[in-house]
């Protein structure tokens, strides 16, 4: 029974000019792709199976990320059904020289564990332990309720 913190994965992406939109900030589509990739890593770590994206839930672009900034993407499993895995996702703008950070995006995606034939397969139960794990789960359940 994996814990919330065991599914916690972070990855950093250097935001380059080829990632830009017309405003010279990070294109939201690129960020969605990175959210999906890190989210899938977290879901698969939890499930011990291949996982596919079934749904993009609420997705709030709260602040832009500039070209030259670092995008830090954070993912963790906060809930699970029989075969579905609910992953909380957040992105942060990080200034590469100072490390100063600002949260820019919050979202959750639903992944489903599948077998070799693409059929849904059961996932383990999620264990929520430690103050940090409970805090992460509570935040995402609050985001779900408000969407
Ligand atoms: C510069 C510009 C660049 C632009 C660039 C943009 C990039 C912007 C990237 C954005 C991000 C994209 C993300 C792509 C990421 C992929 O490419 S992954 C590939 C895409 N995904 C797929 O191909 C999955 C296709 N769907 C399927 O294969 C099937 O629907 C599934 C997911 C296996 C489910 O099969 P099913 O027969 O419906 O299974 P069923 O037993 O009925 O349900 C199983 C579970 O799934 C859940 N479920 C099924 N459907 C859903 C659903 N829609 N929602 C929630 N739960 C669901 C059920 O509730 C159930 O949950 P449990 O009660 O078991 O926990």
Automatic annotation (TrEMBL):
Any coiled-coil regions, as ranges: none
Annotated source species: Natronorubrum bangense JCM 10635
GO molecular function, one term: long-chain fatty acyl-CoA hydrolase activity
Ranges where the HotDog ACOT-type domain occurs: 5-117
Pfam families given in the database record: 4HBT
One record GO biological process: fatty acid catabolic process
Any single GO CC term annotated in Swiss-Prot or TrEMBL for this entry: cytosol
Matches recorded under Gene3D superfamilies: Hotdog Thioesterase
Keywords linked to the UniProt accession: Hydrolase
Protein name per UniProt: Thioesterase superfamily protein
Domain of life: Archaea
């Amino acid at each position: 029974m994996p814990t919330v913190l065991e599914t916690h994965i972070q990855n950093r992406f250097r935001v380059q000019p080829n990632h830009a939109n017309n405003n010279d900030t990070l294109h939201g589509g690129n960020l969605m792709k990175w959210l999906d990739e890190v989210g899938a890593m977290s879901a698969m770590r939890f499930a011990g199976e291949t996982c596919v994206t079934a749904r993009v839930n609420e997705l709030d672009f709260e602040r832009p990320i500039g070209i030259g900034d670092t995008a830090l993407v954070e993912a963790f499993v906060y809930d699970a059904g029989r075969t579905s895995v609910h992953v909380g996702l957040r992105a942060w703008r990080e200034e590469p020289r100072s490390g100063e950070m600002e949260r820019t995006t919050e979202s959750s995606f639903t992944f489903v564990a599948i077998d070799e034939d693409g059929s849904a397969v059961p996932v383990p139960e999620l264990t929520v332990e430690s103050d940090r794990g409970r805090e992460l789960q509570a935040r995402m359940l609050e985001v779900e309720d408000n969407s």
